[in-house]
Amino acid sequence: MTFPKGFLWGGATAANQLEGAYNEGGKGLSIFDMVQFVPKEERGNEIEMDVRSKKELEDLLAGKGGDNFPKRRGIDFYHHYKEDIALFAEMGFKTFRMSISWPRIFPNGDDREPNEEGLAFYDKVFDELLKYGIEPLVTLSHYEIPLTLVQKYNGWTDRRVVEYFVHYAETVFNRYKGKVKYWLTFNEINVSTMSPYIGSGILIDEVEHKEQAVYQALHHQFVASARAVKACHEMIPDAMIGCMLARMEVYPETCSPDDVLEALKEDQMNLFFTDVQVRGYYPSFMLSYFEENDIKIDMLPGDEEILLQHTVDYLSFSYYMSMVASGAPDKKKEKGNFFSGVKNPYLESSDWGWQIDPKGLRITLKKMYDRYQVPLFIVENGLGAYDKVEEDGSINDDYRIDYMRAHIEQMKEAIKEGVDLIGYTSWGCIDLISASTSEMSKRYGFIYVDQDDYGNGTLARSKKKSFDWYKQVITTNGEEL
Ligand code: BGP
Question: Which GO terms of the molecular function aspect are on file (predicted)?
């Protein structure tokens, strides 16, 4: 027996990619409600999720440009949650990762009174999960900052947003304290450095020193996260609250010390985020980086104590790929994997160019556990793929099964080698809208949803071949893969 008893098997989602009903139940707009679908033929391999300026945002709000905003419709979980949760229960889920849409609770972000209809919706969802013995695992902010906070404060660049977030966190802790035990503060907190609008709600063209603005916003998020940890511990003593990182293991291209050093540096830039949230302080390599790049973080008295005293109970991360770094200056601009790095010749890639690396997951698990010595939770992993519905309605997604089997095997090895891994929630357990491309056709689920990139389809749910496979994985606690 490798996987510990009580291992939290399940699936992961996010409100903005799942719920739909973007203007129902008193919900305000979120940043992702403004992101349009651009077909691959038009955008090529470029991924641009960010709204960058006030002007661009105003134009979008005025309805200029296209009108296809897939994240507004999601897969209509808002009206299908009972049916979907019944399917998760049939697979034997122990846990279900979801997020609360912040603007569903505080439509403008800075309101004092919460929106009761929004609160009531999540009560119904949690009750439904608990009915089947499924533990909700809830992310407070999965790229879902209310749009008004972007318009009024340029997102997390403004310190006042910390108070609004803490008020939101306390409101939901208080409301759901009898129902939700597992919490996460920010999804993929490191995404802000690549995508300031999505990660921190920043209209980046409105600021002069861009990196300064991003790291200042991140400081506010770190403080907000630590204060949410504090509130959670006080209000729900038996809860566990964690942080969440988009983890990418970085390999050197060769054993040349230049490549090794470059890989180490890139890896540190990734681990900086968990260093702050798990260890409770800014690592010295980052303070040097700030100095070199003329970045001055404005900290208030007490911030350092808050970060140090309220570290997370566990570390969670998404894992899809590894990266390769080269010390050669001319290779810095290469885009070998998703958005950067040299291509790894030993690995295959998904249809979106994400390089598949199950062993990299084991390496990452071992490295993270060595570094932090706290329980680890893989809260996202999976294969985005085009699925084909056969004439008889079946979907034979053996490629997805192969992908997951290979990753779970490496998890097993990591556990045997001493890593404390407490759970695994595969990404997009039900097909939903892609975060990076807003496509519906980039599918991750065990459950197929009949909808295309333009919103056509019946929204009917059907089981893929991987559905029964995953059910067996859970039933045997990972023994039969
Ligand atoms: C992570 C996000 C998710 C999710 C996933 C897959 O970065 O936390 O929200 O969508 O990646 O990415 P994509 O949907 O772009 O394929």
Answer: beta-glucosidase activity
The answer as to whether 178 is a domain residue is yes
> Cβ(435) to ligand 1 under 6 A?
yes
CA–CA separation, 222 and 297 (whole Å): 12
Q: What mean pLDDT value characterizes the chain? A: 96
144 Cβ inside 6 Å of ligand 1: no
* Among 191, 425, 434, residue to substitute to test ligand 1 (most atoms within 8 Å of Cβ): 434
Residue 335 has what pLDDT?
74
Task: List the catalytic residue out of 144, 249, 380, 439.
Answer: 380
CATH number of domain containing 155: 3.20.20.80
Q: Indicate the range of 26-35, 40-49, 144-153, 253-262 predicted with least confidence.
A: 40-49
Does any ligand 1 atom lie closer than 6 A to the CB of residue 433? no
Q: Note whether residue 185 is domain-resident.
A: yes
Domains: count for the chain: 1
- Ligand 1, residue 191: give the atom nearest the CA: 7
Please report whether residue 3 resides in a domain.
no
| pLDDT (tens digit per residue) in 223-248 | 999 999 999 999 999 999 999 999 99
Catalytic: 135?
A: no
The candidate with the shortest Cα–Cα distance to 364, out of 204, 198, 245, 194, is 245
For residue 17, report the distance from its CA to the centre of ligand 1, in Å: 9
**Has residue 17 got a pLDDT over 90?**
yes
- Asked if residue 366 belongs to a domain, the reply is yes
Residue 374 belongs to domain spanning: 8-475
pLDDT of residue 197: 98
pLDDT for 40: 85
Give the Cα separation of 27 and 41 in Å (integer): 33
